[in-house]
Design goal:
alpha/beta; 6-stranded mixed β-sheet; binds zinc ion
Length: 230
């Protein structure tokens, strides 16, 4: 169980961006709730680096699996102008959380989808990254998750994996640290959420593991309906 494409949830730099003249970050950093897009907003989603039309079609099909549960619309375009900007070159899978994407310099991607379209986890990863882009956090970092991590094994695994190794700090941020329940809107912990990483038994103490969740769970649907009501 070593080939999972774990993702990194990116955070905007804490340094003020001199180009960010409207002071947007300060207003939005108060609560997680403020990371959401406006209800009924049409999210403009740009492909920055010309993936093939087949590749794009597959990304769009996976992303659109969220549409039945939200009031947002997606508009996919070419180029660098978009609320969300997707880069497909490279090996990293990552996304900013919700409208944090608006704080990113307009030439930079807000989502990386390095996973190859032929990979068995492609659809899962694309749905997962779009979950972040809609504002969903990692389910394994739910305050009630209480996964019995074997922390040293987890650090070792991530530091030594050949593609996209993670530092200890990055492991802390993306795996261990629960999200702050004062800032977050969330429902009960759900091991079937597509926002939950698969967890190999070798990374936990005792007998605890979680498979790759490949579909949007009932709880995921419920959360989306709650945050983007029609
Ligand atoms: Zn993730």
């Amino acid at each position: 169980m070593d080939t999972f494409h774990y993702c990194t949830l990116q955070k905007p730099s804490k340094e003020p961006n001199p180009k960010d003249i409207n002071n947007r970050r300060q207003k939005r950093s108060l609560v997680h709730y403020a990371k959401l897009w406006p209800s009924r907003h049409t999210l403009k989603i740009a492909f920055m680096d010309n993936p093939t039309s087949e590749h794009k079609k597959n990304i769009i099909a996976a992303a659109e699996k969220w549409l039945p549960y939200i009031s947002l619309k997606f508009e996919f375009v070419e180029g660098v102008e978009g609320d969300i900007r997707i880069a497909t070159e490279g090996v990293v899978n990552s996304s900013f959380l919700g409208n944090d994407a608006l704080d990113i310099f307009p030439d930079s991607p807000t989502m990386n989808l390095g996973i190859a379209p032929e990979h068995e986890d492609f659809e899962t990863v694309v749905i997962h990254e779009f979950g972040h882009a809609l504002g969903a956090m990692h389910e394994h970092q739910h305050p009630k998750a209480q996964i019995p991590w074997n922390k040293e094994n987890v650090y070792n695994y991530y530091q030594n994996r050949p593609l996209n190794p993670l530092s200890r700090n990055e492991v802390d941020d993306n795996i261990f640290t629960p999200f702050d329940d004062a800032d977050a809107l969330y429902l009960p912990y759900d091991r079937q959420s597509i926002m939950h990483h698969p967890v190999s038994n070798s990374l936990t103490l005792g007998n605890w593991e979680n498979p790759t969740n490949r579909e949007i769970s009932e709880k995921d649907k419920q959360l989306m309906r709650l945050i983007y009501p029609r």
